[in-house]
Each structure stands twice: as structure tokens, then as C-alpha cells.
Model the fold of this input.
Amino acid sequence: TGGRKERFKALFLWGLPLLCRSLVNWASKTFLGRGSASPPEWSWLSVLGQPILNDGDTCSIAACTVCIVGQHRLAFERKYKHGSFTFEAKHPDRLKNICQKRGVWSKEKGSWVSDVLNVIISTGGVPTKKVPNDIMLPLGSYVRYRQDGHLRAIRIASLIYNEGPVIGTLVVDSAMYISYLQDSSFVYQGVTDPETAEAHAVVCFAYRVVNSQLQIRIMDNQTEDGPLIWVMFGAFDRFFLPKVEAINPRLLRRKKRWRKGDQFEPLEYILSKLLFFL
Done:
């Protein structure tokens, strides 16, 4: 009948776009590693804490610390509510000392991001300030993405959009790079002579597409305000995604005694502290 045909037609017109969107999302998740198309610009500045000032070629240590705390804030507030994560990282002086003791960091050469992340994993995580509670924010693992000619800009945009801030390593010419830090309206393009360049670690927390080119916004940990500048995707050498899980909300409260069922039992807590100083 005519009424039945109209119902089938309406169902077809309504269901076809829904089916197409489902297929696009499935293909994106299967082949690109993302669940939905990322928007042309995005920022996770709200989950980052204050910059940790680079103290004597400690850019990798500062970037790893800031990014891991940001990832913990994002994981916690995704599970609970916005603004509920109030932990802040201690200045990573002890982490620098451990890295120096293990031969991971030196004043002359600095350190590689992957080595610093491995130290953080082995020592129990990133220590926090006493308020609201001095705990360790653990790092489970990390994933590395290399600029090997096959890494697409859309992959990193999707990674930041879906997973949060990441650590990036730039190839920089120090004199040229400093001039860009002094004027945030500039977009850093990279170096023309890689032979004279140096590696530099930063936190990548935002992106935008301008004239079909991906620009990534970074926190540099050089000054109290970052600075925050834009960098072309092609200027990066590697990206690192720290993998964390949301901590137990009970850890927000300082306890006079340990209770059964807490995330960290007394022995585990003591061992994590000892590992950090070894």
C-alpha cells in the first residue's frame, strides 16, 4: 500500500545516513586507530598544570613530568568529573638525580625521552606535592611514534584529540628557536640544516589545520607561562604517548592510617618510595 511504501521510504532515508556514519566510524577505528573524525582544531590546555622550568638541559625530564600529570588529570576527570583532580607534580629534582645516577642524564648531553620514561616507570611514577596528598602517579607504559616518512599528520591530530597531550621531540637550531619563543605569533617551521641542530623535548597539547597544514601547539617549560607556541608538524622528530589509568579517588584524602581496600597497601607504598630513591 501507499502508506507502507512511505514508511519504508522514510526508514530508508533515515537509516542510510546512520549506516554510513557507522561504517565511517568503524573504518576510522579499524584502520586509523580512532573512533571518530577529529575536528580541525583542538586543545587540552585545561588538563595541563603549570610549566616545570627547564633547569640545566632537563627538557626531557620537565616535558615527561608535565605530560604524565596531564594524562592522569584527563584519565581521572573523564571517569569522575571536571575539576576533581587537584594533584600537582613536585619539581623533578630527585628524578634528575636518579637519571644522572643511572647514566640517563648529563649536563653535557641532557637525556632521551624514552630513557626518562623508563626511569619513571621503574621508580613508581611522578611524585606529587603534599596537598592534597603526596603520592606517586604511576606510568604504565608509553607508545612511540617516529617521523619515518610514513607518519601522517592526521594520525597525530587524531592521537591528541582522542588520547590527550603527548611528548614531542623537535629538531631545533637554538638561536633561531629562541627567537620564536619570544614572539608567540610566529609558527616554528623547523631547521634547514639538521647536522647543526639539537633535539628538544616539549609537551604537545593542541593542534590546528591552517592551509591544509597541521600545526601543533606546545608547552616548552622555559618560562612561567610556558611559553606556548605553534610548531609545524614536520619540525617534529618523535612523539610519545604516556599510558596511565585513573587513580583511586580515595588518594585525594590524606589518611592517618591505611585501610584495607585502598589502591596502595602499606608495603606497596613503602616499596614504591624506596624504588624512587634507588
About this structure: The radius of gyration is 22 Å. Strands lie at 41-43, 126-127, 136-137, 141-146, 166-172, 187-188, 198-210, 213-223, 226-232, 236-243. The CA atoms of residues 180 and 186 lie 6 Å apart. The chain has one domain: 41-277.
